[in-house]
Amino acid sequence: MSEQAADVTGVDGKRDDDYEHHGGFPKYEAVTPGPDWARFVEGMRTLQDLAVSVDAPDDVVAQAADQVEKLAAVLTPYVVPEGRSPAGRTIELPGRGSLLMPPWHIEKFGPDGVRSAGEFRRYHLGGNGAAHGGTLPLLFDDLMGMIVHAYGRPISRTAYLHVNYRAITPLNTPLTVEGSVDRVEGRKTFITAQLKKGDTLLADCEALMLELLPGQP
Ligand SMILES: CCCCCCCCCCCCCCCC(=O)SCCNC(=O)CCNC(=O)[C@H](O)C(C)(C)COP(=O)(O)OP(=O)(O)OC[C@H]1O[C@@H](n2cnc3c(N)ncnc32)[C@H](O)[C@@H]1OP(=O)(O)O
């Protein structure tokens, strides 16, 4: 497993040497895990989809539960502290290799904004074929974190995230989400983003990201 420092160069081209000292945040570094990590994560995503969509006979559920318990026993000895797992740090994988994140690919990452593309799956179902309303703030919040980072701002937390739902967000349909920094005022970074299906606006979002003070969690 090889590690490389995340790019923490500011928009002015100067490296942010204070990066590690903002708030109490651990430093996250991008990682390239071994060849089976992608297969493992995709397999787990398929299991998530199945776990919310099957209605299997009791004996089949019992078999599945036995296997899940065995799998958990295999993995449990390898639990590591926050920031050490490849989950969330594997830039080239959908959702950066984290099951928490929708499996979307980053298409653009820079000071002028971040765009990613992907689909919501059965796991993300809310009702009547639409994505759960709570999955959109998750997608937007993660995007906001990446936009702040790509803009070269210090580690910041979401103070507010305002989502407007403009149209139903379908499952299993290619979508894009894109946002950029509107303005910076002291510790405050104001960001807007849009979720689209083709040219159709599904949702838009405005967020205030606040730079953490030393020691803030
Ligand atoms: C491997 C490589 C990967 C690379 C690629 C990925 C990179 C990835 C990076 C990860 C980056 C993490 C991204 C986490 C993103 C979350 O999701 S964080 C989780 C959700 N957010 C939280 O839990 C935050 C909880 N809240 C807090 O901790 C505190 O309220 C805060 C936000 C730190 C602010 O507290 P504070 O420092 O005491 O701020 P305070 O003095 O009250 O306010 C400062 C100013 O902001 C204003 N303000 C504060 N809150 C609000 C509000 N809600 N509305 C309006 N104004 C407000 C105040 O009025 C004040 O304004 P001024 O008077 O100065 O004009």
From TrEMBL:
**Biased amino acid composition, Basic and acidic residues:** 12-23
Enzymatic reactions? hexadecanoyl-CoA + H2O = hexadecanoate + CoA + H(+); (5Z,8Z,11Z,14Z)-eicosatetraenoyl-CoA + H2O = (5Z,8Z,11Z,14Z)-eicosatetraenoate + CoA + H(+); octanoyl-CoA + H2O = octanoate + CoA + H(+); (9Z)-octadecenoyl-CoA + H2O = (9Z)-octadecenoate + CoA + H(+)
Q: Where is this region: Disordered?
A: 1-27
Q: Which top-rank group of organisms is this from? A: Bacteria
Indicate where this protein resides in the cell. Answer: Cell projection, Ruffle membrane; Cytoplasm; Membrane
- The answer, when asked if Repeat is one of the entry's keywords, is no
Q: Name one GO biological process term.
A: fatty acid metabolic process
Q: Which GO terms describe its molecular function?
A: hydrolase activity
Q: How does it sit in the membrane?
A: Peripheral membrane protein
Cite the entry's keywords alphabetically.
Answer: Apoptosis, Cell membrane, Cell projection, Cytoplasm, Fatty acid metabolism, Hydrolase, Lipid metabolism, Membrane, Transit peptide
Q: Per its UniProt record, what SUPFAM superfamilies does this chain match?
A: Thioesterase/thiol ester dehydrase-isomerase
Q: Which residues form the Thioesterase domain?
A: 128-201
UniProt EC number:
3.1.2.2
Q: Which InterPro entries match?
A: HotDog_dom_sf, THEM4/THEM5_acyl-CoA_thioest, Thioestr_dom
One GO CC term, this protein? cytoplasm
**Keyword Iron on entry:** no
Q: What is its main location?
A: membrane
Family membership noted in the UniProt record: Belongs to the THEM4/THEM5 thioesterase family.
Q: What is this protein called?
A: Acyl-coenzyme A thioesterase THEM4
Native source organism of the sequence: Rhodococcus oxybenzonivorans
Q: What is the lineage of its organism?
A: Bacteria, Bacillati, Actinomycetota, Actinomycetes, Mycobacteriales
